[in-house]
Amino acid sequence: MRTVLVSAAVSLLIALFGTPLAIRLFTRRGYGQLIREDGPAAHATKRGTPTMGGTVIVIATVVGYVVGHAATAFSVSASGLLVLGLMAALGLVGFIDDFLKIYKQTSLGLRSGAKLAGQSIVAAVFAFEVLRYPNFYDITPASAYISFLRDVGPVIGVLPFVVWIVLLIGGWSNAVNLTDGLDGLATGAALLVLAAYVLIANWQVRNACTGVSVTAQCYAVRDPLDLAVVASAALGACIGFLWWNAPPARIFMGDTGSLALGGVLAGLAVCTQTQLLLVILGGLFVIITLSVIIQVGFFKMTRRRVFRMAPLQHHFELLGWAETTIVVRFWLISGLFVALGLGVFYLEWLPG
Fold first, then answer.
1. Residue 321: inside a domain
2. What is the distance between the alpha carbons of residues 335 and 200, in angstroms, rounded to a whole number?
3. The pTM is what?
4. Nearest to 249 by CA among 14, 57, 19, 9
5. For 301, which of 83, 171, 245, 293 is 20 to 30 Å away at the CA?
6. Residue 346 lies in a domain
7. Is residue 102 part of a domain?
8. pLDDT for 31-74, tens place per residue?
């Protein structure tokens, strides 16, 4: 538990005091946000705000994780390193996308096919790797099952599992990316889900199938405590970054941050065997993603729109809602989904 606290504290401090340094550096180099011409008119004032702030989140998370382990002499694990590697690799894909936007002075960076290919390659490597590295109890970071509160159903095989994980990681990294349209919205929602994973992983530590008193409800998770460390490090980084990203934002996370956060959430879901539970915990991301799917699908069929603009947060902007009102209300919705997800997770432990 000390490692969890130290990692969270270190990453929070690095993000809190490192973000203003990034703001000055990116401003000096002209790494400013470019605004879509078809976006809400109020966003024009955000043009030139430093972007690629997600680099601070990734660096703070990694450093917090490393320092936490070094300070408490707690060994790193295969699960923790794989989830961190997934986060950093997707962050790199996002960084390339952000840098190309700035270099070409356009709101479009990587071509959609190239971006999807980068995400898919990273996800496929992660999917293969989590099936390796068994521990003393022959438990690997993940197994070839679909999971909800733990692995369920029959084994689906290696290749179907890899395809499933590629879709899962691609879906969540893009879901966070779509949510990152208003100041602090994605950061605040992500940190709530990360807080839930700190609690979930700690509960799995206390009820591991490798413990002294094993119950029928135990969890066969390889490294739950180290996954709690990863979640706490990312949580601390998000809190520190949100200090500067909250409305009115002085820096944006960019695709660097949104893809990285989507990756760490998906990685935690895979390694804690809660892949489908993440749909509830991250319900806000799901709703916003569905709004885009509905908008595009309905328009292609009828040439009419369901929402004034998608993703959903921009629909409310065009209805006249203040940005801070949307952000706070969406945070509340995210918190309700997190509470519901935690309730479902703990439900099986209630008497009767």
1. no
2. 15
3. 0.95
4. 19
5. 171
6. no
7. yes
8. 766 655 555 655 555 666 888 999 999 999 999 999 999 999 99
